[in-house]
């Protein structure tokens, strides 16, 4: 993949992410776990996997799905931010295989191991790339997953986005070791550290690992070192010291790539401005589309409070693939007849 | 035609039949290979199906339940054996956050056809060693899973139901919690129909017919209730109707309510603790839907609310024949309104 394309994808992800973050801070969108400055990881993964591979992102790396081959674009990232499209970890009909998260960090990882085990049992050439953060790395589920993947030589790549902070707790206060890649040795898994601010470096590191996984070389860990310039979520205050905040804002993944392109002459300031303009236009249009769709949906539907509770039988249908028991259906009908 | 087998043989036979019928059915567990599981439930299956169908894992309940989740989403039908029900506690995030919610949170786009087998409880049968295996090896957690919508919860009490319900569970598109009573494994034998014997999920069984009092009994308490019914018939001339719900979610409310409307009296028995136990749910259903038919308060006969002691001391906190007999007699000896006492006095006179 050419450098210019990786830059375009990273920049597009940034513009969408920045807008969603801003709109969330302004109150138009509920609390958002901003993925600012994590775009390089998502784009690097998304451009390194094949259609048939499975990607499970953490909540900061939605761009991974966006750019999985034939996947989603800038418009879709914005619509997701508005809750108008399935999230980055949901299955998109006709899209590449993605795995959902569960809302409990680390708890989503075991199912990714199960998908990798399925690929191995079916002798498929596909691989799984599962992304967690440094915070999740403290969960017991993560330990069990890495151990099982190691002992069964599963085709799974664990990418740990280490941004140095878990909600408000600094990495140095959660982990005595200086590196999460060092854990690989304990599981008999190959592990490496990569500069997570560099889309190109992530793209190549993941691409090489995926190729080894496909050849049956067993699982790997990549620790991508990134930084979180903003709050954990837009509704939670950042309590870091100014010194820690300054350090977290020192390196920006979009700037890294832009400077490299400008320096090599592959891009000039005018072309860059035009690129920013055209991608921003997509973001603007998507925001307008999302506002319209949301307003229409709200105008058309009775409020949930007015509509009242669903019946027991309806709740059952929402929760189970099999139909509710006959008595439950009958009661729902009787209640309806009374009212 | 039928074959006589123990409860644990029936569970093993269900595995054999379903794994033979459908090659997407896989067994996941700890020590389920050559050993055949901690209690021997899957003994000899490894020789028959080998390591490509029987997957052994390290002691990582979260990890291998999660592996089963991923496999179910990829078209497999995993049967996940937990060595003892107590050990699922370390993996409840997988069961309650992921498994139970999959269908709802994906808007029905994805369901997880997997079975989690939980060997629970103590031996209450009166056969062989009676008592507990200590506070962390004797528990009955069925109520937790009933409280996590999306799960199907079945609880067979005899070999035929164990086989038929396990086979039905494997074929269900929904995740099933299979509560198997480990005290029954080798203590109970019964006739199991030959051929493809399936028991409908969600259908109760009337174990003993009667007109004077309904005893809804779960798991091992079904066998206790049968003995109590015999005692009551012999010593009190009372006809107890014993009902085994077999499935807790979805509960066969119809069968329970039909019986309560006939007898007017209800006792619920389970070996799980009292507070928040499933007996409370059944009592609430009776109060809501059969209040006018009840002639006596609904009583529960359960384990006491304390950790289950190791050894024979467990029998001091677990329910048994004596406890259930006296509980049913309280209900039989009362009429509504109670004679000569306020409602709050109920139970003291005959206790």
Characterization of the model:
The complex is a heterodimer of chains A (339) and B (351). With 339 residues, chain A is of the alpha/beta class. Chain A folds into two domains: 3-296, Thiamin diphosphate (ThDP)-binding fold, Pyr/PP domains (Rossmann fold); 309-338, no CATH class. Helix content of chain A is 49%, strand content 10%. Chain A has 14 helices and eight strands. In chain A, helix 1 packs antiparallel against helix 10 (253-264). The longest helix of chain A has 32 residues, at 269-300. Chain A is globular, with a radius of gyration of 22 Å. The N and C termini of chain A lie far apart (63 Å). By secondary structure, chain B is α/β, with parallel strands linked by helices. Chain B folds into two domains: 2-193, Thiamin diphosphate (ThDP)-binding fold, Pyr/PP domains (Rossmann fold); 205-339, 3-Layer(aba) Sandwich (Rossmann fold), CATH 3.40.50.920. Helices cover 32% and strands 21% of the residues of chain B. Chain B has eleven helices and 16 strands. Chain B has helices at 7-21, 45-49, 61-73, 92-99, 102-105, 142-146, 159-171, 221-236, 253-263, 278-289, 321-332, and strands spanning 2-6, 25-29, 54-56, 77-81, 115-120, 132-133, 152-154, 176-181, 189-193, 205-208, 213-217, 240-244, 247-249, 266-273, 299-303, 310-311. In chain B, the strands form four sheets. In chain B, strands 3-2-4-5-8-7-13 form a seven-stranded mixed sheet, with helices on both faces. In chain B, helix 1 runs parallel beside helix 7 (159-171) and helix 8 (221-236) crosses helix 11. Chain B is globular, with a radius of gyration of 20 Å.
